[in-house]
Design a protein that fits this description.
mainly beta; Jelly Rolls; elongated; 35% strand
C-alpha cells in the first residue's frame, strides 16, 4: 500500500484541484475526522451526492442551510384540510349530539374533505392530527348549561364510533353583550385535539351537544368569517 504524508495540500496552480478519478472512493478510517474550518464549505456539483449509509448518523451541531434546495424524503403533511362554518346553525336539538356542518373550505390538499367529513385517501393511511373548535350556545340568549364535542370515526364499510371527546359541565361563564358577572353566559367555545392512526378510507367528522337552560328556544352553533373562523375543523397527516 502506498502512503503520502503531508501537512498541507494545495493545487499546483489556480484554486481548483481534483481528488481521485471517476468511480474512485475515499474512505476515512474509524476515528478519523474530516474537519471544515469556520467559513469553509463542502460544495457538491450538480448530479453529485453525499450518501449516508443505513445505520450511519449525520451529527449536526450547527445549521444546515437548505435555501434554494430541492428537499426530498421529508413528510409533506398532506393530506391536509381546514374548513369552517360560515353561517349560524339555529334551533338544533337541545342536549343531543348533532353533526357539525363546515360549509366553507380554506384548505383541502387532496380533495378529501366534503361538507362535514374528512376521508383518508387511498394509500394515505398513517398518523394524523385533528383539531376542532365550535362556538355554540342558546338561540335566544338564555344561558348555557353545558356542551360537549366529540370526534367520530367511520371505518370503510363500518359504523361510526367515538374516538375522542371533551365535555364541559356546569353553567358557562362566557358573557354576551349586556350581561354581567352575576348572570350566566349564553355562549361558549369548546375544542378538541387528537393524534390518531388511521387506515385508508377511514372517515372523521365532528359532533357537538349543546344543553341550554329550561326556557331557551333551542341550541345554536355560530357561524363566522374566514378572518376569524371560530367554528372550524382542521387536520393533516403527520407520518
Amino acid at each position: 500500500m502506498s502512503k503520502i504524508n503531508v501537512n498541507t495540500w494545495e493545487p499546483e496552480s489556480g484554486t481548483a484541484a481534483t481528488l481521485m478519478a471517476s468511480g474512485d472512493t475515499v474512505t476515512l478510517p474509524d476515528g478519523a475526522i474530516l474537519a471544515v474550518a469556520s467559513g469553509g464549505d463542502i460544495n457538491v456539483a450538480s448530479g453529485g451526492e453525499i450518501d449516508i449509509a443505513s445505520g450511519a448518523t449525520l451529527d449536526v451541531n450547527g445549521t444546515i442551510d437548505l435555501t434554494g434546495a430541492t428537499k426530498t424524503g421529508f413528510p409533506s403533511n398532506t393530506p391536509r384540510f381546514l374548513a369552517y362554518n360560515s353561517t349560524d346553525t339555529t334551533a338544533i336539538s337541545d342536549a343531543t349530539y348533532t353533526t357539525v356542518v363546515f360549509d366553507t373550505e380554506l384548505i383541502d390538499s387532496d380533495t378529501a374533505f366534503a361538507t362535514n367529513t374528512f376521508t383518508v385517501p387511498a394509500g394515505e393511511g398513517g398518523v394524523y392530527y385533528f383539531h376542532s373548535s365550535v362556538e355554540c350556545g342558546d338561540n335566544t340568549l338564555g344561558y348555557l348549561n353545558s356542551n360537549a364535542i366529540r370526534f367520530r370515526k367511520t371505518p370503510d364499510g363500518g359504523s361510526a364510533a367515538t374516538i375522542a371527546y371533551n365535555n364541559f359541565t356546569g353553567q358557562s361563564l362566557t358573557y354576551g353583550a349586556g350581561w354581567t358577572a352575576t348572570t350566566r353566559g349564553w355562549w361558549d367555545t369548546i375544542s378538541l385535539d387528537l393524534v390518531v392512526t388511521l387506515a385508508a378510507l377511514d372517515a372523521i367528522h365532528v359532533e357537538v351537544s349543546v344543553d341550554v337552560h329550561a326556557g331557551g328556544a333551542g341550541a345554536k352553533i355560530f357561524g363566522d368569517t374566514a378572518s376569524i373562523p371560530r367554528t372550524k375543523f382542521m387536520g393533516y397527516k403527520l407520518l
